[in-house]
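Budget justification note: compute hours in this period were largely spent on complex prediction jobs such as the one shown. Inputs:
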Amino acid sequence: MSFHSNVRMQFSFWKKNWPILYYVMAIFNVCAIGSSVYFSQKHIKDFDRALSIQDKRAGIYALTSELSRIAHEVNAPGNDLFGSGNVMLERKRYEVAAINFAKKTNELNSRVQALDPSNPQRKSLLSRLGEIERRMASMDQVSTRIFTLYQKGDRVRAGAQMAEMDRRFAFLNEELEALKNQNIQEVGQVLHDYRDRLKKTRRLEYSITLFLFFTGLVTALFGRFLASYVKEAMQDALRNFQFSKAVSEVAIIAVTDKSGIITEVNDNFCALSGFSRSELIGKNYLAANSVVYPQDFFETVWDMNQSKNSWSGEIENRKKTGERYFVKTVVSPIRSLDGEIEQFVSVRFDVTEQKRLERDLLEAQKISKVGFWRYDLITGQLEWSSETYRIFEISEPQDPTQLFEQYRNRFHPDDLKMLDSALTQVTVHQRDFEFEHRILLDSGKRTKYVRGIGKVARNSEGKVVSISGTCQDLTDSRSFEIESLSILKTMSEGLVIQDQNGEIEKFNPEALRILGLTEEQLPNAFVNNTYWKAIWDDGSPVEDRSHPVAVAFRTHLPVRNVIMGLIHTDGNERWINLNAVPFDSTSGRRVACTFSDVTEIVLANRELGCIFNYSRDLICVIGEDGIFRKVSPSFIKALEWDEEELFQKSFFDVVHVNDQSRSHVEFFKIHTGRPSLNFEIRMRTKSDKYSFISWSCVYDPVSKQVYATGRDVTELRKSEKELLDAQSTAKIGSWTFDLITGALNWSSEHYRIFEIDESQSPDNLYVLYRDRIHPDDLDKLDQFTKGAIERSEDYVYNHRVYLDAGKRIKHVRGIGKVLKDENGKPVALSGTCQDLTDYVALEQKNDFILKSTGVGIWIFNPTNNELMWDESMYKLFEISPSSFSGHYQAWESSLTEESKNQSIRELQLALSGEKELNMTFEIKTPEGKRKYIGGRGVVTRNENGEPLVMYGINWDRTPEVTYEHELKSALDLNEAIRRSARFMIITTDLQGQITGFNKEAERALGYRADETVGKMTPSIFHVHEEIVDCWKEVCAESKAEISNEFEALVFRAKQGLYYERDWTFVRKDGNQFPVRLNITGLRDQNGMISGFLGIGRDITEDIALQKQLAEERAKSLHTAKLASLGEMSAGIAHEINNPLAIITGGLSVLTKFRESPEKFDAKVEMVRKSAHRIEKIVNGLKKFARSSDKNERALIAFSELLSEVLILTEAKSKRHDTPIHAQVDDGIQLVCDVVEIEQVLVNLINNAIDAVKERDERWVKLNAFTIDESVVIQVIDSGKGISREIEDKLFQPFFTTKVVGEGTGLGLSIARGIIEQHQGSIAIKHEFKNTCFEIRLPIVERTKSAA
Amino acid sequence: MPLKVFYLDDESDLCEIFADIYGSDEVLVETFQEASKLIERTAESKPDLIFLDYRLQRTTGDEVAKVLDATIPKFLVSGEIQLKTSYPFVEIIKKPAPEEKVFEILKRYQSALK
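Corresponding output:
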């Protein structure tokens, strides 16, 4: 190859293959980029290092700056000290600054230490830091001296030290600056170094990159140029070798000499033929293998010797086993350089399979009716396969140039557009096509459906050079499809084909109609139940898993006849009968669902079910054998059999024996096709009762079943009978008169009322009727009849009926109603007649009774509030008829305020039907009199239950209500007493059994009422000994035989005597307590004693009180005595001191009269008398002052008692010059407490003296005498008497008429108490003109006894 | 001169004893049982001393004292336990009057008289 041609070739190569240049360039550029990245990374690392150093140094620099600042702060306080003069403050500032400085110094030291140890600057930095620390320390010493000196007041020396401080600070600062500068220098140096390295590295980088780039370029451009020569040669050799090897591997090769003797075969030859190499080599090629040689083989082969280069063709061979095979053979001569054939080489390819495939393909084409075609766009040649010819029914072979025209001519005219479009697709757009079209054959009589598929084939330039494809005869499937579509379209069921995702692939119109969806909606309708919800016939939702389609998918088995409801989103309800059949399609498993609309059927069944289940009529289905097939719930309920039992029975089993034959007749009738309506028979219930059932039956020949509905008319029959009975009872007959025919019909009761025989001819009936009407009532009859006929007026006609020639009269009410036709013309009269004879008589009797009893009758219309009263009502309410309003208000306004609300409420309740009207209300008559009125009423209502009229009566209940009130009050009082009484109230019967036991008895005795009532006698509460004592007393008193303790207790009560006595009661717990018990007899209405009432009171407190009272009285008495004594004391003292003075004086002068015996004796006597005088007074006082609680009563002569009293009162009497005159009958004796009686008399006499001491006439008289069995003692003074106003209060304690400080006023109340204790009395006698207190005391003491 | 002493007491025995005990040449005692007589006598002959009993018949000693010459020293003698008087007696002596007491009084007035 010449250089120029090579260059051209290279140029043309690159021109064609210029992308290769890019690849090469890309490779080298990648290398360049890699190099660049490498160097960049190197730069970054280098930079980072430099930066790190810089950071460190910057940090050090910053710290150094900070130190400088702090150093100033350290120096400042010293200077400021001379300004502020505050040593402590400045010292503190200094110390803070020094500490900060030290911290920063340490930090700086740490940073420097952190520098790379190889860094030469590190050491010097550390050294500088050390110097800085030393200088700082020296400054510290100086500052300390400064503060100390200043504190001492040596400001001069302190100032000198300040200068030293400044100097050392300057040294420190120098060092800090040097440190900073050193840092800066090094940082700069680092950056310089970095820059220099960067420069060098960059140069290297650029160089390498450029080198790589250009090297790549040069290599790309020229490298091939140089290598192409070498390569080409090597390539050729390699190519040939590889080609041979490749061919040898796939082909069947035999090499023969020029005579056709096999000299070499390859392995494939042996493998395919079955002969071994040794069997083949040396054999004639022709004989060795071929069986059938094409005709031209020999010619060609031998001709090859002449001019042809090679022969090719298909040869059928036979293997060693005899099996045939086909090979495509190329026999080529191998010539020498001078052109002589030296060898033949046979290259074969086994095309047996290909042949078979071709054959199969043809067969398949035939079977599948798919033909093949190819159209060469360049040559315009159209090739068809046989099948294609057959499909288009064109005889082959055809002139290919005509073939297309023939093909096109067979196209259905409507489908030619598709053909043109396909050709355009191919030629213009160079795309494959596929379309279905029709072809018309037999002059259009037949149509075929063909699918044509064309695929483009492109050359190496991408240009479409040919089109090949298939055409498939779809006629059969299309026909099937069309038929199927027709079926689908016309079928009455819906059909959908659904995939496993629920999407619908195919559906028919009926499916759309049934489902109520559009074509757009249906495909995804089943996905997520978009449009409807599926339910079962029981209303429960269909679960996805149990859906028939899901079941079909899952089980691969069809699901048929599933009734399913679809509830649309719009609320519509549809029911379908669904079948789901799974099948496998080319695109996977599918389910074909067919469904029919059974909505109407389901709804109808539902309705039917409702009717069947809820109808009150008896419904049953009976088989031909008469056995029940189905029965409604009403049937079961009516006849009381359950379903299972009925299904075992025939209809006739439950028919009354007497109705059997009739039933059979009816059943026979319906089997002939006629329905049986309303035949009534009796049916036996399970409880052997009989119900009247009216049946309607029909026979269905298809199902061969009888369908029967029955209505239970038992009640109707009963009602009819009752009505007849009622008519008879109520004596109401009915009649009708046909105005057109003149027919008159009466009921039996009507005949009976008018006492006309039923056998009478209806023609005579009216005459007989009129004959019986009272003559006076005939006119009215005619009027009413005329009114009914002419004016369609209904009427009510009360009249009399003459019977037995007028001997008897009946009262009859006739009611007539006019019946009209559709035009409103009266056509008949219908009515009732009621025998009111008894009622009238009753009314008259009632009227008489009401009038005589004063019971009033009223009628109230709640609709319009009209109120009607009879005469008695007016009298009852004492209202005149003229003043009665006739309105409800008349009643309401008569009510008193207290009874108004309740009365109105009762009325309303009665009107509403909640209760009957039965009340008592209070009215106020116009005169203001209050009366109690009883009321009862009944309400008549309409068909809706609304009240129409209320009838009632009222009567005067005043006396009984008053009595009730009084009785109630008494009962209430009694009950209140029972409940609240603090008395034990125990009642017994005659035998002593306790019949009543009140709360207080329970509390006091500890027994509950239920423990005592009916179970015990009161004896159990008593101490036995006391009852025995009582018993003895009663026996002694009455001389009667007392049989038991209870008799003893109640003996006196039985006599009607009041019996009260103190007892000791015993509680349930055994404790005893005193009770004052009063027992009386309870009498019945006849006055006979029917029981006993014991009222007991716990007197424990009483006794205690009495005791306390007695003690108090005793104390009071004693106090009064002392008061009296005190009152008397002045006088008594005087009365004692005088004789005492006489005694002492007398004794002192005795010596003087020693010589004179008479005077001596006289003095002695004087002394003795005085001593005796004193003795008496003292004795009297002693007696008087003695406490009376131990006093006993004793019999004493009154005169003796009086003398003591006079002694005690003598002094006062003398003092006030008020003589006391006593006049006492002889022999008066008293049994008394002497001291107490003395006290009383002393008090009375003292009071008398006090009362008259200011008077001119002053005296006190004391009389004592006996009258009957009493001693009367009168103390009279010369006073003018005591007023009655004061008299009542006189005996009250602390009442006094004396001035303040004079007497305590206790005397008379005590005196009364004492006298009363003696069973006596003390009172003022007003018969005397003077004041007289009279005491009466019994001569003999009366003891306490039961009266 | 002898001391003239009047003594009023409704108890005759006490008058007698008074006179027996205290009467002497130097002390002339006149006793009275009635207040009116004392009053008359005092008017006639003014005593040097008067001893009056408190509890008298129909009157009291201090009532009597009020009507007597106020210049005459008066002594009230009484057996009362509690005694209230508005009259400015020289002294109230409790019965039985201690003899020494009365003698001392008499002696005092005797001396005064002298």
